[in-house]
Amino acid sequence: MEASKSDHEASGNGEDKAAAVTDEEPCIGTHTERQVGTAGTQPEQAVQNGASSGGSPDTGTPLSAYGLHVPDIAERLAKALSLRSTAAGTDASTALSEQQLRLEHQAPEAPPQQQRHQHRFWSSQPVPQYNETCVTCDGPIDERPRLDPASVPEAPYPLLAGFSWCELDISAESDIQELYELLRSNYVEDDDAQFRFDYSPAFLRWALSPPGWKRVWHVGVRVSTSSKLVAFIAAVPVTMRLRDVKALAVVEVNFLCIHKRLRHKRLAPVLIREITRRAHRQGIYQAVYTAGTLLPRPLVTCRYWHRSLDARKLIECGFSRLRPRMTMKLTERLYALPEKPLHPDVMPLERRHCASARALLSQYLETHTKFHPCFSETEFEHWFLPRDDVIYSFVRVQRNTSATGTSNERVTDLISFYSLPSSVIHSSKHRTLRAAYSFYNVATSCSFQDLMQDALILAKNAGFDVFNALHLMENREVFDQLKFAPGDGELHYYVYNWRTSVLRCEENGLVML
Ligand code: MYA
Fold it and tell me: Does the Cβ of 284 fall within 6 Å of ligand 1?
């Protein structure tokens, strides 16, 4: 997700000296990236603003970065301020903050259409054009590689002199560490270059090795002389349902990353062409991918929403801002959660639950969404069995005993979220923001809202600072009640080489990492 592959559109504007490619390496030296950050958006200043309970007019923006930059929010808050509740027995300030929160939680109006420039690369690719929103006949756009496999080149695409292709061995500690370092310094940042995704090595290994993974799809670019890893792209196999097509074998493409010193040199299209060639060589002709960047043409676009778990830390590191007329104490009180889950029987998913939990999820995705992965049993076990600091899954089960005395367990509810921390780029106080990202959640024995409240409590108890969720499946229904706030960015979902109409957010049943 990419994302908060949310808004995690690459800004490409952060010059990270520590990450600079060494001078002897070729193709370096003329990049024109902007300076990191802009006046008024430095975390230090956000903290200063946050320290004042009065706030400044511009502190009407409660969440920044992966959070809010909603243009009309100040206006909404001004209205809210004139609505101070005087109801008997109500703490006036808390009532005000609830009111503010309700107003803020109205999703921001659609931003002005992002600049749709001429796409030198993407206009040559088999993807729907921007104006093709409604399609009468779903299907592949380019059948040539499938019908004529001999047309797929055997050799990798040529690279600039001085660079060479490699395949990473993710089972080797050294390779996973190299990938980790590349991403930690160069992967997705928010627009203000305050936060950068910090996928852990264990997470990367998990994300890149589902059943059926192939080393040939973990593609790196190295500097030939030094062997330094400077770019990467990956694909993993997945079976998707897309509308009436029940089982489309595709790849999920993710972790496209180019070292900051090699940006804007048209290397991304080479990486994309190469991973496409490698997919074609394995008989795969479609792909799904997400990005914060607008490209031709999203299947669906979903906004990230954020639920503060540690409000003080989020404010201190510039992720959120203290709202006008709110003190730190009131803010903490506003986001306080019960210590224990509402459902005391909620338990970590174990292998013995997997068959039933998978059936529950498959049934849910099949009936509620039009675009979703179809997990096999082994895939479900891979993606859902808990791993510390990677994936957290919980279930509720119903025990049935038959007349003959045999008992079985049926999973009635599933909670899952994954761990994707971000480096806090400039804060002297905090180095890492611990974010839990909603994965797949299904409620049948309780309300979806109660289930998601338990997800928040479990995430808080596991030490996360914020809980992020996309506006997809049923999520939007509970955001207001559970005090989520809309983020400032959107995550676009794409399908490569498949023509179909756009989807509503609620019809989207795919969560990518
Ligand atoms: S999304 C995460 C993307 N990564 C980041 O944001 C990390 C930080 N940023 C970077 O590392 C670089 O800025 C990247 C671009 C690598 C993003 N998806 O080389 P360039 C197009 C697709 O000069 P750079 C993820 O991982 C751009 O529109 N295309 O640019 C999913 C332009 O084309 P056009 C993108 O800034 C990846 C061209 O690249 C993206 O140096 C899915 C410019 O190239 C993007 N996120 O590097 C990949 N960003 O002129 C597609 C820019 O036409 C998979 N561009 O507008 C497709 C399916 C393939 C398999 C098919 C199998 C059948």
Answer: yes
